[in-house]
Amino acid sequence: MDIRAPSAEQEAAFYEGRWAEADASDASPRNYLVKKERFFVRRLKGVHGRVLDVGCGGGWRFLSRIGPVAGVDLSQRSLQSAAQVYGGLARAGLCALPFADESFDLAVSRDLLGHIPLEHKDQALRELRRVLAPGGLTLHYVETSADDPLSRFARRYPELYERYVVAPEGHVGVEPAAALFARFRAAGFVPLAEIAAYKGFIYVDRVLQYFDNEYCERSWPLRLLVAACRPLARVRPLAAAANLAVTLLVEAADHVLPSAWAGGALVFYAKGS
Which is deepest, 66, 78, 120, 245, by most CB within 10 Å? Predict the structure, then answer.
């Protein structure tokens, strides 16, 4: 599928003001409930040093306990929010980081690398490696291209897939989890953890975002699923309960479903020599 990457100007305009709220959680109960946040909290226990948060959004207070944090984002509004929790900020993209070589001991991102076009992803990883000190660590949650039945169905209709799945959140650079792991290794990172995650299930709001549209005309089971999700989404306690159920299903499914079904990847690497 040919997904056209946005220009630099389009990319900056797209992200301005999105995901700009600061995350004040700090190893809170929610951080342990949410799989990708739990991954960060557990893997970074006892880690100290200079931190780079790339695509930082409004910032995450938890990272400040590790050491001084520099946040990088394309959105000026996000950086204004991140100023509440981070000491250093820069408006820049991952492919051209405005920092000297070996400036950080740890580089992290959440929900970022799936937004980097595939043709730019190797350069992005080279930049991460460049700014890490020898033996430095890098930890990410990355959106990946799932090969579960629902995702395969969605990609059968490229125009709809671009309009309702890719474009709303800018996921122009997703790839299978196995390809992502290989890319990090080829860039000179030594794996400490590579976990294919979020297999086979999506949350109520995502069902409606992706499929409450022309997709329903092409599948009667999908039409039933969307019809079931609509009333849940209208009542906040019901939506919360349904999403909690999905969270528990994901926890179980990630142990048994194929890695190729993963909609995300949790990765932890050290900078190789």
Answer: 78
CA 148 distance to own-chain centroid: 19
77 C-beta neighbours (distance < 10 Å), count = 17
Tell me how far apart the alpha carbons of residues 116 and 182 are, in angstroms, rounded to a whole number. Answer: 16
Residue 17 reports pLDDT greater than 80: no
Bridging pattern class, strands 132-143 and 262-271: antiparallel
The residue assigned the tokens 């086979």 is 200
Show the domains of the chain with their CATH numbers: 8-147+170-199+258-271 (3.40.50.150), 201-256 (no CATH)
**Cα gap 90→104, rounded to integer Å:** 14
pLDDT tens readout for residues 79-90: 999 999 999 999
pTM: predicted TM-score of the whole model, two decimal places: 0.92
